[in-house]
Amino acid sequence: MRGPARAWSIAVMAVVCTVLAIILLRSPPPSVPAPARHLRREEPQPPPLTPEERRSMYRAWPLFEGWPLPQLPSGEEPPSPPPQKPPPPTQKPPPSR
After folding, report:
1. Percent helix, strand, coil in the chain (nearest 5)?
2. Are 83 and 67 in contact, with CB atoms under 8 Å apart?
3. Could you count the other beta carbons within 10 Å of the beta carbon of residue 45?
């Protein structure tokens, strides 16, 4: 956009932002409900995952070709390998005439 169109678009955006700011700043804040007086029941924690369930989370990962496979967390931190660049895409030569 150049010239008057750009100036008009900036002016329209300024008016829209001003109107929104006035509406949002003048409206009363939402009322806060009174805190509940009854005791909360603790939700039951799900059982811990078995090793097979932890591995199954990444079952569809090979669908993302070229992505590194995630490693399951272990007790010790292995050194991270340097990032690898993907191989350049191979292109077919143009057909000869």
Report:
1. 35, 0, 65
2. no
3. 6
- Sole residue written with tokens 């967390």: 73
Looking up tokens 């009854």 gives: 38
- Six-digit token string for 6: 């750009």
Q: 């005439």: which residue's tokens? A: 97
CA torsion angle for 6, 9, 10, 16 (degrees, to 10)?
180
Residue type, 41: R
Residue 36 scores a pLDDT above 70? no
Q: Which residues 6+ apart lie within 8 Å of 54 measured at CB?
A: 72
pLDDT at 14 exceeding the cut of 80: yes
Q: Quick one: DSSP state of residue 61?
A: G
Query: Quick one: pLDDT band at residue 66, thresholds 50, 70, 90?
Result: low
Q: Which two tokens stand for residue 54?
A: 């932890």
Share of the chain above pLDDT 70, in %: 64
